[in-house]
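hey so u asked for the seq, here:
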Amino acid sequence: MILVVGLGNPGSEYARNRHNIGFMAADELVRRHSFGPWRAKFQGEIAEGSIGGTKVLVLKPLTFMNLSGQAVAAAARFLKVPVEDIVVIHDELDLAPGRLRVKRGGGAGGHNGLKSIDQHLGQNYRRIRLGIGHPGDKDRVAGYVLHDFAKSETWVEPFVDAVADALPLLLKGDEPGFMNRVSVLTAPPKPPKPPKPADAETKTKPADVSAPLSTPSPGSSLADALRAALARKKD
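ran it, structure tokens below
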């Protein structure tokens, strides 16, 4: 079994926050792959299903972000899922909006949800880091992540859809294929190629403007011969 955890904060007031993009991805994953309904368990909400023949449980901790590790640890221990088989989907300030990276282990980078999971289970789990961009000033980070995505940020839904679409590749161990698939699905359409300009150097055969050679009219040679014969007789 694979335990996939989407990080976020519970409650409708947080639903569209940048900090909740992990919840958004979890919701789309469950919808796209026709998982069972959400139900309350392990201090969170869980949904069960199968992807590519692999049993998957998706968890959204309802403990608020900074206590996420309590719910993840409760699920992992009850289900006997090793930390290596846990995948955590979370927002990432240090990636541009709509960019994605996968890593295993490493520090929490200031993310309170990851800090909590590290405290309960260690660091050897996989992270799907979903870029939301940085406000440019560390003093503005808290307000930035707890603010809703702007209506102009139209990349969010296609990005989350692409993560759910490509996840089977990650579960098969193909991390580069997973990242490439998301990139392809979220790439903007290429602009149409401009029409080729007319070839100014295309040469055409010049018209024959030389004067035509005069040609004798039909029968002119015979008439000349008769006149010559008459002239000899007169002589």
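The chain has one domain: 2-186. The two ends are 130 Å apart (CA to CA).
lmk if thats what u needed
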